[in-house]
Design brief:
The complex is a heterodimer of chains A (about 350) and B (about 500).
Chain A lengths: L10 H26 L4 H13 L2 H26 L7 H18 L5 H30 L3 H23 L35 H18 L1 H11 L1 H6 L4 H16 L2 H7 L13 H11 L4 H20 L7 H37 L1
Helix pairs in contact in A: 1-14, 2-3, 2-13, 3-7, 3-10, 3-12, 3-13, 4-5, 4-6, 4-10, 4-11, 4-12, 5-6, 5-10, 5-11, 7-8, 7-13, 8-10, 12-13, 13-14
Chain B lengths: L2 E11 L4 E11 L3 E6 L5 H8 L7 E6 L2 E3 L4 H6 L2 E4 L11 H6 L5 E2 L2 E2 L1 H14 L15 H14 L4 E5 L7 H16 L3 E6 L2 H7 L2 E6 L2 E7 L5 H9 L17 E11 L5 E11 L2 E6 L6 H9 L6 E6 L2 E2 L5 H6 L2 E4 L3 H5 L6 H4 L18 H14 L16 H13 L5 E5 L7 H16 L3 E6 L2 H7 L2 E6 L2 E6 L6 H8 L14
Helix pairs in contact in B: 14-15
The chains are: A mainly alpha (about 350), B alpha/beta (about 500).
């Protein structure tokens, strides 16, 4: 077995190629749906791409949609590395964003260099607490995190809904009063004129830093090593003197804290208040993002860009095809990612086999 | 004699490997044919091709002289081929009878006709002395009996060719003898038997002919009467092999690991360890023999901190380690080669270099608070891979990509690199090929010569006999016998292992 490995056989190449394969396939299937509704797929796709990637306003919109997806994607990905399926990013981001808004409205007059970190921290604490609860229950009682995070999503939604309609709201609205002006994260268009009108703001930098942190934590620290061992083989972790329950709790807390950062984009960077229903399932899309990004922080960024594009692109092509088409496209991407692993590898194996045969003959 | 099986020029390729390369194997009707070779030599692939689990890329198969195409086990069963897999394919909550008829039920007005079936099976069982309790649930019977059920199942499906994959791996010596008796009787009745194994003494004891496979090819075929284990081992490995461990006499030093009256009661209240006492001295290998499931695993896990003993004491160098966490036990000077390398000892989805620091990852040379030291992890891996001859030489490959023997070497390399005083080696060579076994045995003896206290737990009596300085036998959670040296017959050990002989309680203390 001294033969050199074909470059296609390297896991890293495959991890990169499989999602691309899935995306291409799903666009192809999407084309069929476009044909069914009587439109020209090439035209629809060309509008989709040109309106999102073709001008800086579109790019700004796309990046604005991308930012929260990076946070929730990272949250799911990190928990997944620890062997946990965090369905609770939605609840965690609700609590986190609400905390950001709450702290922001009561801290008027604090200088920006304190106020901004403070509000960021508030979001992380809120999301972290919402991650801690299922983490603790899992570690101490074995209660499954999938069930508990789903349940806590309902609790979070109901809680913020109650407070934002009854307690902390601007009368006759379902949003809170504005946060202190010093807590605002500047928009891109304040600096680059090209992004005029699009809501993208510098919270995307926080998202990129979070990705860098997750990568470093998982790949370069002993805590990340322990987390991965726990995720891959908890019995080996136990054997190697690694506390499984501690790692479960810690990763749920970190995952929750990262999801809690979603508020930086909306509350600190866009509307400056918390509004009921501001997140349209961003937490759940995070699962798809993590999946497509192969739970790799940089993969998550790329996947978030794709889903961000689809989300904004859905509005762009709204006049040509029903907006449901984009939801279908998103769903198909996910289905293909899940199932293409095997298909792709099978194609690969056959390809390599033929190749070795022809060399041997 | 005509051939029952003719595999002609069979080639089976997987993506990167050629598991079977132009193999021709002919098995005479009514004979016992042994198929030996190291792990990964292609024995199981070849037999699973015969059984229809794989389709060969090229080659032909003839059964009783007739060319056939076997697309699935369904075809092979129809052709009279039965296979007893290494891991039994039984349904534990069903009775023996139900398991035997499963998938081949006799029906009457589309209802199960168990009465008729019972009679048929009893007749078969009687004819081949395969006595099994038909109405007992499979989960309540021992592995030896389960294996008989598997054989009976195949015969009930009218198999006249029987393939057994490593059938003695799970049996006690007594059960193995029983099995061989059954196989001889099957042969008398005209059945053809293919025995996959890597235990050479079994080959010598029962087979008529032997085919040796190496790296996907047939390395040789001989008549059993005209060969010897040494020659077979050489054919398997491709170089001369030491079958006996060379070990100088050595006087054991002071006891380092001392266990006193250790008991463990599990959650259901079942007592799995009953007042076990033993001592292991420096420079000594204490072998623990026993049929699996007689408390050995619990004993090891209690020592390693993976289970909390119910009572009793464990001391290492005079300091109690009972009830400490695995991390603290490691810190006190214990190395532990766990019995199940895939479940416990390795993270197979991680690369070799990361596996080589499991449990050592907190040590300052490998990580500080803020970052792991990637260079020293890599250097450590390169060093250990060379020192322990781990193949392939690639610190970045996932542990899953290694053969069983090399996976085990990774664990042994890591555990010995702890430089601990006490080494627990649990089933250290299970599923490891001959070349690997030789290396692992030598390593353990070297550790003993360097003054380490070694506690060896193994279901393989050969291993116990050739490595141990003293032997303790465990049965039903107790130590029932201690032999002060390894000069003891296998059959004698077997009697203690099955509880037919033995004192109610022995202390493996002192020598």
């Amino acid at each position: 077995m001294t033969e050199k490995r074909h470059w296609l056989e390297h896991p890293a190449t495959q991890n990169f190629l499989i999602p691309i394969f899935a995306v291409v396939l799903s666009f192809a299937v999407g084309a069929i749906f476009i044909l069914i509704v009587g439109q020209d797929p090439f035209q629809v796709y060309s509008v989709l791409f040109s309106q999102t990637l073709g001008n800086s306003y579109g790019v700004g919109q796309l990046l604005f949609k991308t930012t929260p997806l990076i946070f929730t994607g990272l949250s799911v990905a990190l928990c997944f590395k620890a062997g946990l399926f965090n369905i609770g990013a939605e609840g965690q981001l609700q609590i986190g964003a609400f905390m950001t808004a709450l702290v922001g409205m009561y801290t008027v007059g604090v200088p920006a260099f304190i106020e901004i970190p403070l509000l960021v921290l508030a979001g992380m604490v809120g999301g972290g607490i919402w991650g801690f609860i299922p983490g603790y229950l899992k570690a101490k009682t074995g209660a499954h995190e999938v069930i508990n995070t789903i349940m806590l999503n309902f609790v979070a939604a109901a809680l913020v809904s109650f407070f934002v309609t009854n307690v902390f709201n601007v009368p006759a609205t379902v949003h809170t009063p504005s946060i202190a002006p010093t807590g605002r994260i500047p928009r891109f268009d304040a600096v680059f004129s090209g992004f005029q009108g699009s809501p993208v703001n510098f919270s995307i930098v926080i998202a990129l830093l979070a990705a860098l942190f997750v990568w470093y934590y998982i790949d370069r620290t002993r805590y990340g090593y322990e987390l991965r061992v726990v995720g891959l083989n908890s019995k080996a972790a136990e054997y190697g003197g690694i506390s499984v329950s501690k790692n479960i709790i810690v990763s749920m807390v970190i995952g929750g804290a990262i999801a809690g950062l979603v508020g930086t984009n909306y509350v600190m960077g866009y509307k400056y208040y918390f509004e009921e229903g501001f997140s349209t399932g961003t937490g759940f899309m995070g699962i798809a993002v993590a999946l497509l990004g192969n739970n790799n922080p940089f993969g998550v960024i790329l996947a978030a860009l794709l889903f961000g594009m689809l989300e904004y692109g859905g509005l762009v092509i709204n006049t040509m095809v029903p907006k449901e088409l984009v939801s279908i496209l998103q769903a198909i991407v996910i289905i293909f990612v899940i199932s293409s692993n095997k298909i792709f590898r099978k194609i690969l194996v056959n390809f390599l086999k033929k190749r070795t045969l022809s060399i041997n003959d | 004699m005509p051939y029952a099986i003719e595999l002609l020029n069979i080639t089976k390729r997987f993506a990167r490997t050629t598991a079977n390369d132009d193999i021709t194997l002919k098995v005479e009707s009514g004979s016992i044919h042994a198929l030996v070779g190291e792990n990964g030599a292609g024995k199981t692939t070849l037999m699973e091709t015969l059984y229809g689990l794989y389709q060969p890329d090229s080659g032909r198969i003839r059964i009783h002289g007739k060319e056939v195409s076997i697309r699935s086990p369904h075809d092979s069963i129809r052709l009279g081929i039965g296979m007893v897999h290494q891991h039994f394919m039984l349904v534990p909550p069903l009775t023996v009878l139900e398991n035997i008829v499963l998938g081949a039920e006799t029906t009457r007005y589309s209802l199960l006709d168990l009465k008729k079936t019972t009679a048929e099976i009893s007749e078969l069982a009687g004819r081949f002395s395969l006595s099994v309790p038909l109405d007992e649930k499979v989960e309540n019977i021992g592995v030896g009996i389960q294996q008989r059920v598997e054989i009976l199942k195949a015969i009930y499906r009218k198999a006249d060719i029987l393939v057994l994959d490593e059938p003695t791996a799970v049996l006690t010596p007594q059960e193995a003898v029983q099995l061989f008796k059954i196989l001889s009787e099957l042969k008398e009745e005209g059945k053809t038997i293919v025995l996959i194994t890597h235990k050479l003494n079994e080959v010598m004891a029962i087979s008529d002919r032997v085919s040796v496979m190496r790296k996907g090819k047939i390395a040789g075929e001989v008549e059993t009467a005209k060969t010897n284990p040494q020659e077979l081992a050489q054919m398997m490995v491709g170089r001369p092999v030491l079958l006996r461990v060379e070990k100088a006499e050595k006087k054991a030093g002071e006891p380092v690991l001392a266990i006193n009256d250790l008991s463990y009661v599990d959650r259901r209240g079942i007592s799995l360890l009953k007042k076990v006492s033993l001592e292991v001295g420096s420079g000594e290998i204490l072998g623990i023999a026993g049929v699996e499931g007689n408390g050995q695993s619990q004993l090891v896990e209690c020592i390693a901190g993976l289970m909390k003993p119910s009572s009793g004491s464990i001391t290492l160098d005079g300091i109690s380690i009972s009830g400490l966490t695995p991390r603290d036990v490691f810190a006190r000077g214990l190395a532990h080669v766990p019995e199940d390398r895939i479940k416990r000892g390795l993270v197979v989805e991680m690369d070799v270099k990361e596996n080589l620091i499991l449990g050592l990852h907190n040590q300052p040379q490998f990580s500080s608070r803020l970052a792991v030291n990637r260079k020293s992890i890599m250097d450590n891996a390169r060093f250990l891979i060379t020192k322990y001859d781990i193949r392939p030489v690639d610190p970045d490959i996932h542990a899953r990509g290694l053969s069983g023997g090399n996976q085990q070497k990774v664990i042994i390399a890591r555990e010995l690199s702890r430089n601990a005083q006490v080494i627990i080696a649990s089933q250290p060579t299970r599923g490891v090929d001959i070349g690997g076994i030789e290396f692992i045995h030598r390593t353990l003896v070297e550790a003993r010569d360097a003054g380490k206290a070694v506690l060896l737990v193994s279901a393989d009596l050969n291993e116990i006999l050739s490595l141990s300085d003293r032997i303790a036998v465990m049965y039903d959670g107790r130590i029932v016998k201690v032999f002060p040296n390894s000069k003891v017959e296998e059959s004698e050990l077997g009697l203690y292992m099955t509880g037919s002989k033995g004192d109610s309680q022995m202390k493996a203390v002192g020598s």
